[in-house]
Amino acid sequence: MIQSQSLIFGFVIIFGFIILWLIYANQKIEQKTDLFKNETPLILVDGKIPPKLSNFPAHLRYIDDATCLQCHATERKMNFGNTPLIAKKMPHEYRGNCVSCHLLEK
């Protein structure tokens, strides 16, 4: 009787390990690569990743920082075609090169 109880106990333990293995073997660990794509700037502004520039015609060709500041020094309403746009005020102090942090969306 004791031998059959230990045999049953052994099967229960083995069966329990198999169940645990089946449960945890199917769980996949996914790496979050959204923040670490190939085109993430190396510079963080105030601990945040700078937003990418939209595919707006003025953003498609970088000229110089003064050109960026014409729209982003203050909040400004603009009309391009039929679409009114609001250029947001730059929320941080002036830095040397806008496109060193802000990349163009693809």
Number of helical elements: 2
| Fraction of helical residues | 25-40%
The multimeric state of the shown protein is: single chain
- Kindly report the average pLDDT value: 76
Report the β-strand fraction as a percent range: 5-15%
Major sheet, described briefly? 2 strands, antiparallel
- How would you sum up the global shape? rod-shaped
Give the beta-strand count: 2
The Cα radius of gyration reads: 29 Å
Going across the major beta sheet, what is the strand order?
1-2
What are the low-pLDDT stretches, counting only 5+ consecutive residues below 50?
A: none
Name the structural class: alpha+beta
Helix-strand pattern = HHEE
Distance between the termini: 73 Å
Provide structural commentary:
With 106 residues, the chain is α+β, with helices and mostly antiparallel strands. The protein has a domain at 32-100. It is 30% helix and 9% strand. It has two helices and two strands; from the N terminus they run ααββ. The chain has helices at 2-25, 65-72; strands spanning 76-80, 83-87. A two-stranded antiparallel ribbon has the order 1-2. A hairpin with a 2-residue loop joins β1 (76-80) and β2. It starts with a helix and ends in a 19-residue tail after the last strand. The model has no long low-confidence stretch (mean pLDDT 76).
Draw up the topology in text:
Layout: H1 2-25, H2 65-72, E1 76-80, E2 83-87
Antiparallel strand pairs: 1-2
Brief characterization of the structure:
The chain has 106 residues and is α+β, with helices and mostly antiparallel strands. The chain has 2 helices and 2 strands, in the order ααββ.
